[in-house]
Structures are given as structure tokens and as C-alpha cells.
Structure to design on (603 residues):
């Protein structure tokens, strides 16, 4: 019976194919089901235990967890020692955090001293961790000795943290130099030790910060020292932790990590299940959601107790960025809307309620507007990306709302946001989106990156599909959508693809942007926003281009990796492409679903 239904459904698709001069008559739903099947086959939704990593470059936060190593809750002092290998002379202004008193020596010179009794206070920001104190490292070229003296008044959370000023430069795509930890270059220390740790530690000593203990005089190995309560101590390494990591992690495309594009895959799988009638895709999405809900306490333990702030799924700890809050929450709120009386429904609802609160009152907005904005790389940087990261969740929240007042509040917020984003990132001359705008005052024109334009038009279509046509915002949003489509159509290549930088024909053709534009135009035809006779073939041409990069086993090629923002167009032109990067997978899934709906509307 199922085969008969599918055959009947395919007949009008074949007619459409001939009318639109499509190369193939294969049902788009069948094509993207190969992607869904691959996800079902290959996603384990498990953690794998492994030793904590030991990266050498000092380009991100590093720490010494004295409390885990010495397991004392009595007042005490301990030391940590390492070498920093600097590629050149450099001044590095680092941020630091510690509980209670601390001293730092660089090349035998005291450069920092703070006497205090306080708990550790780390503030998680968008792409950095804010700390309480600052120190300056005047590094010479080559090896530099770094000695930390840390005290505890009996606080079990006894830890020292240091972080370079790295993140904001990285978001701006600046090439920065960093020193590297080099314990393997210490005399009389086996290099194998450096594979486990960047530090040597010794302690605990009695709690006297002003007393000059042996490590301040000379670093020597092979001797015992008189420690706390006259207990003999010697140099050792910090406790080596075992962490849970995702299985077979990939730089781009590990499908079940916590991030917006992976949540997007789960959201797409829910709708693939609806379109195909096959429940296995929805089960995959449910597994994604429950994997994260069940693992929440484990992730918190790794991040907050073990201080492994970049361990697997650490973004789940409500980092204040839409990429890690509202966008990956879409499959959760979608399931709550669509299904009743399912396992863990209470946990889903609690999580979504927290995200709704975040959407309304906690996510930073540009002053005087309702536009979601960011603090990186500069305060009040507006990214086109955040149209997708925030607006579809607001649309879902409107549909999930229990009262008419709440529905109107969320829907009007989403609709007005579409229009207000145009004040910041819409290039009126090109009728395309710039990737970002650093502030309202600085009128910098960033390149017209393909996927950024995709995020903008995707969010726009989500609003148009759900906004009452009598709403005052509907017509201006529709006009803007049509203007954007007209500009996009001009830049579609003969192959059906769009370029990674839309208006640069010397930029490579790319799948994820092409998939989103194809989806957006197909929606326009399906919902009557666009003239079907003109735009159906354009969507079909885009779909055939996308399909040409999908292998029969579901592998998808030619996907641009995650991308920060830059004024340099060559940064975008030369971005690497990966296969099966989830930034592209969920865009392709939606493209197939929406082209199928466009083709099937005649049924």
C-alpha cells in the first residue's frame, strides 16, 4: 500500500519535472531521506571516556585545579610551575581568576600579587569568560619561567585560571600569535609528562603567603620538602581527569553536539518525518533532545567542577549567545507544540520555558530597538546570522503560547525584528545582506556572504508563513522578501548554484547557501508570494544543483564551514569546504522538503 501511495505521489512530480526542464524526476523527499537515513545509521548519541586534552598553545583559558589535586579543605598554599615558549618578544595582557591569595612570578620577577579571601567568580560571555583580575606578561623570545603561588582559606574550589586576550580578535579573523606551554623543555623532566599536563605542581604547604617556601628559591626535582602538617611532599602533576567526549568528533559536522546547526538538523528531521510519514526521523530528533536533557548534569559537572570549560556540549550551559540558546532549542519547542503526553515532557517544558524567558528578557538587544545583537567582536555588533538564531524561535513561541496576548507579543516581536534588522545589515545598493555591522555609527560594509543572506531570508519566510496577512508588518516584510529574491535570482549561476560570496563570480559555488535560497524561493511559490511560472524553474534549477552534491549514501559535499565576520572579502572566498558539515545538512534537508511541497501542491 505504501509503495502504491508513493507511486501515485510521484506521477505529478514527473509532470512537473518535464515542465520545469529538470534533469531528473527523482522525488526530492527521497533524495533527502538518504541524508536522514545516514544520520540514523551513524549517530550514536553516547559519550566516550577519554583523557582530558592537553593543548599547548596559550590561545584560550588554562587552569590549575589545586583542589582536585591536593584534596584538602584546610588552609594551605601550593605552587604551579611551567615554561612558556614565545615565538617573539611580546606583551600579553592576560585576565586571571583565583580564590583567595595569589602571586605570580615571570622569569623570577614578581609581576602579580593579590591578598584576598573570595570564591572563584567566572562570568560566561558570548565567546569568552570574564575574570576578576588582570596581569601583564612581558615575554622574551624563547623560554619563559612562570611560577604561580596560590592559597586557599579552606575553600574546596581551589583553582587558578589564566586567559589570553584571544577571542575577540579571533571573531574578527585576525591572525594572532600566542606563546606555547613547553614543560617538555624543562631540564630533567621526561617529555612524556608533557603529553599529560602543562604544569608541575607541589603542595600543600602551610598557609603563609609571605613565607618564602623552597619553590620560590629554586626549582629542584628529586627532593622531598616539608609540607602542611610536616608531611613530606615533592613535585607532581595535577590530577589528570577523564572526560566524556562525543564519539568520533569532527571539526565540522559532529551531528549531535550542542550547537545551532545540530539543533537545526533535529528540527529538520522532525519535519522530514512529517513529510515522509516515517517515524524514524522523528525518533532521531527525540534522541537528540533527550541526549542533551539527560546529560545536562554531566555537562555541568565537567564544566563547573572539573573546569573543562570546552568539554563536550559545554555550550549547553546557557552561554549568552543565540547560537547556543534559542536556535538549538527549536526541536524542543517544536515537539512540545506537535506532540502530547510523551516521555520527559515535563523536562522539555521546563527547558523551553527557560528559553522563552531568555528570548524575552535576557538576550542583549540593540538599544532603542528590538533587534538581537552581540557583544563580540565589539559591543552591539549586529549579525545577519541572528535573524535565524532568534526569529524562528520567537515564531515557534508564538504558536506555543497559551494566550492570545502572548501569541501577538511573540509574533509582533518577530515581525518587527525582521524589519529592524534591515536598518543595520541590509545593503540598499546591492539589495543583499552584509554579514554584520559593528555598530549603528560605524557604517562598514562587510561582504555579501551567501549563508548569511540565507539566514536572513530563512527567518523572513518563517515569519511570512505564520503572520496574519492583516498584520501591519505583513506587507512590508513581503515587499522586502520579494526584493531580496529578485536580487538573489540575478546572481544564480548557470549551474543553478549561488556563489559563496553572492556577487563575486570568482567565489566558489556552495551548497548551504544554495539550499537555503532554493528553499526560500520554493516557499514563495507554495505560499503564493511569488509567481509560480517564473520562479518554479529557478527553484528547480537550484534543487538540481544541490542534488548533484548528494551521494546515494547521503553524503553531502561542498559545504562552507562555520564562519566569523571580516571586512576582507578574500576571507570568505577562501573559506574551506567540508562534506557533511551540519551547517549544510539541515539546510539541504529543508530544501528537499520544501521543493517537494512546492512540487506536490498540485496534488
Amino acid at each position: 500500500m505504501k509503495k502504491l501511495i508513493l507511486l501515485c505521489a510521484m506521477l505529478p512530480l514527473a509532470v512537473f519535472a518535464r515542465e520545469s526542464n529538470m534533469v531528473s524526476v527523482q522525488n526530492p523527499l527521497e533524495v533527502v531521506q538518504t541524508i536522514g537515513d545516514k544520520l540514523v545509521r551513524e549517530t550514536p548519541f553516547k559519550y566516550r571516556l577519554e583523557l582530558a586534552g592537553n593543548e599547548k598553545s596559550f590561545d584560550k583559558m588554562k587552569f590549575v585545579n589545586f583542589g582536585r589535586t591536593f584534596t584538602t579543605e584546610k588552609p594551605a598554599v601550593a605552587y604551579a610551575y611551567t615554561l612558556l615558549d614565545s615565538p617573539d618578544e611580546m606583551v600579553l595582557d592576560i585576565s586571571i581568576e583565583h580564590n583567595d591569595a595569589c602571586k605570580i612570578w615571570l622569569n623570577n620577577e614578581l609581576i602579580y600579587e593579590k591578598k584576598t579571601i573570595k570564591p572563584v567568580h567566572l562570568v560566561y560571555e558570548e565567546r569568552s569568560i570574564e575574570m576578576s583580575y588582570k596581569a601583564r606578561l612581558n615575554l622574551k623570545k624563547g623560554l619563559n619561567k612562570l611560577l604561580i603561588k596560590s592559597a586557599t582559606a579552606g575553600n574546596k574550589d581551589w583553582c587558578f585560571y589564566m586567559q589570553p586576550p584571544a577571542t575577540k580578535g579571533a571573531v574578527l579573523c585576525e591572525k594572532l600569535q600566542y606563546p606555547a606551554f613547553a614543560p617538555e623543555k624543562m631540564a630533567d623532566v621526561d617529555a612524556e609528562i608533557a603529553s599529560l599536563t602543562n604544569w608541575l605542581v607541589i603542595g600543600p604547604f602551610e598557609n603563609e603567603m609571605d613565607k618564602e617556601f623552597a619553590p620560590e628559591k629554586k626549582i629542584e626535582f628529586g627532593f622531598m620538602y616539608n609540607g602542611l602538617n610536616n608531611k613530606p611532599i615533592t613535585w607532581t602533576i595535577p590530577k589528570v581527569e577523564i572526560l566524556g567526549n562525543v564519539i568520533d568528533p569532527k571539526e565540522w559536522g559532529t551531528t549531535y553536539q550542542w550547537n545551532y546547526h545540530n539543533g537545526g538538523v533535529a528540527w529538520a528531521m522532525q519535519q522530514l518525518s512529517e513529510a515522509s510519514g516515517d517515524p524514524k526521523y522523528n525518533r532521531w530528533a527525540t534522541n537528540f533532545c533527550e541526549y542533551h536533557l539527560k546529560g545536562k548534569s554531566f555537562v555541568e559537572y565537567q564544566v563547573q567542577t572539573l573546569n573543562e570549560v570546552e568539554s563536550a556540549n559545554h555550550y549547553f550551559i546557557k552561554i549568552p549567545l543565540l547560537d547556543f540558546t534559542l536556535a538549538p532549542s527549536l526541536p524542543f519547542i517544536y515537539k512540545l507544540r506537535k506532540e502530547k503526553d510523551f516521555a520527559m515532557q515535563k523536562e522539555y517544558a521546563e527547558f523551553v520555558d527557560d528559553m522563552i524567558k531568555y528570548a524575552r528578557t535576557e538576550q542583549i538587544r540593540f538599544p532603542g530597538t528590538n533587534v538581537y545583537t552581540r557583544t563580540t567582536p565589539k559591543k552591539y555588533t549586529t549579525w545577519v546570522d541572528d535573524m535565524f538564531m532568534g526569529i524562528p524561535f520567537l515564531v515557534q513561541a508564538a504558536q506555543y503560547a497559551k494566550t492570545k496576548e502572548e501569541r501577538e507579543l511573540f509574533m509582533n516581536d518577530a515581525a518587527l525584528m525582521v524589519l529592524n534588522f534591515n536598518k543595520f545589515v541590509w545593503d540598499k545598493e546591492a539589495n543583499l545582506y552584509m554579514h554584520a555591522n559593528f555598530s549603528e555609527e560605524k557604517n562598514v560594509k562587510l561582504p555579501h556572504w551567501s549563508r548569511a543572506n540565507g539566514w536572513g531570508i530563512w527567518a523572513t519566510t518563517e515569519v511570512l508563513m505564520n503572520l496574519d496577512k492583516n498584520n501591519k508588518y505583513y506587507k512590508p516584510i513581503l515587499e522586502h522578501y520579494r526584493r531580496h529574491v529578485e536580487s538573489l535570482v540575478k546572481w544564480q549561476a548557470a549551474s543553478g548554484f549561488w556563489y559563496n560570496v553572492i556577487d563575486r563570480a570568482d567565489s566558489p559555488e556552495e551548497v548551504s547557501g544554495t539550499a537555503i535560497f532554493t528553499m526560500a524561493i520554493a516557499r514563495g511559490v507554495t505560499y503564493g508570494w511569488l509567481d509560480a511560472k517564473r520562479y518554479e524553474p529557478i527553484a528547480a534549477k537550484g534543487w538540481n544543483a544541490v542534488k548533484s552534491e548528494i551521494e546515494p549514501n547521503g553524503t553531502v559535499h561542498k559545504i562552507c564551514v562555520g564562519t566569523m565576520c571580516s571586512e576582507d572579502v578574500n576571507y570568505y572566498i577562501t573559506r574551506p569546504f567540508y562534506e557533511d558539515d551540519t551547517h549544510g545538512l539541515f539546510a539541504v534537508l529543508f530544501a528537499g522538503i520544501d521543493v517537494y511541497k512546492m512540487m506536490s501542491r498540485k496534488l
